[in-house]
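Give me C-alpha cells for this 352-residue protein.
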Amino acid sequence: MKRFSGLTRTVVAASAAALLAAGCSGGAPQSSSGFAPAAAAKPSTAAYRPMVDARGVMSQWPQGFVPNGLRRASLRMAPDAMKTSVAVAQFGGSSVLWFDKINNKKNVPPTTCEPAQSTNGIRVDRHKNLWVPNGVTDTVTEYAPNCGAALLTINDTTGEPADVGFDRSNTVYVMNINNHSGPPTVAAYSASGKFLRTLSDPSFNSLFGVNSDRLGNVYVSNLTTQNDGTVIEFPKGKMPGTVLSGINLGLPGVPAFDSKGNLIITDWEALTLDVFAPPYTGAPTTSPIEGSSIWCPLGPKENRVYCGDADNGSIDVFKYPGGKYLYSYTADLSPSELVTGVAPSPAWGYWK
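Here you go.
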C-alpha cells in the first residue's frame, strides 16, 4: 500500500476520486449575489447577418465582411492566436473564474464566470464553449464563449461528473467518480447531449481525468484498488479498453497530448510532470511540479503547460517541452478552496 501525506492522504481517504470529497453529499457555498449569465448575442440590424457555427453560437460580422480579409496573408493571424484566456475551477468555490490573459505575469485578478458546485475538471471545446460539471446536481453545462449564456445541460444520471473531454468528432465524454450503481464510468454523449455509450474497465476504481488524442482515441487515468496509477486507452472512444502497461504512477493526473502524440501527465504523489513518447512503453522524461496538480493542460501555442496547484492555490506555468518552471499567479485563488480544473481558451489538441 502506498503511503500518502498532506493533501494526498486527505484526498484519497475522503473521496476515492479526483482531488476531493464526493460532491453528492454536499456542495460549495453559493454566491450571495447569484449569477446572471450574459444573453446570447443577436444581430441588431438588417446590415448584419447571423452566422451560426456547429454549436449554435451566433456572430455579428457585417454582411460580406471577412476577418483578416484585408491583410496580406503573411500578416494574418488565426483569430484563436489573437487572445488566449483561461478558466479555473476551485472545488470549494461557487463559481468558475476567468483570467483574461493566460500568461498572467502581473497577477491580474480574474472575473467571475459561471456557477460551479463541487467542480473538479472543466474544459473548453473547439468552439470556445466552456463545459462545467456540477458534482452536486450530477449535471454538465455548456456555456457560450467568454462566460456567455448556458447552451446545453446534460443530466448525467450514472454518477458524479468530475471531468469532461471531447474527441475530433465532437463526442462529449463525461467522467464519473462516484457511480450510483457500481464502479465509476465514462459516459459518451453526442454534441447535442444524446447518450451514446458507456466506457468502463475492470480496473476502474478512482478516476481522475479523461481526454482524447488527435486520432480520436480516448484515455482515462485511474488509481486501482492496488494503488497503482494507470491510464486506460479506448480506441476511437469505443470498448474494450486497454491498460497502457508502460505507465505506472503514484497518483495520476489528467492525460494531455501534444501535436506529436506525446502523452503529458502529472504524478501528483511524486510531484512530477511526466511525458511519455508513443507508444507509451518507455520511460518518461520528467520534471518537477510545484504542488499537487491534477489538471495540467497545454496552452494554445503548445509552448506552455498550466497546472492548477491545489497545495499553493495557484496556476503554475511551465515551459514546454522541458518542464522548466517559469512563474505562478494566485489572484483570487486559495489553497483552502482547492484549485482543480484548468481550461485554456482556445483549447489545444483534440481536433487538430
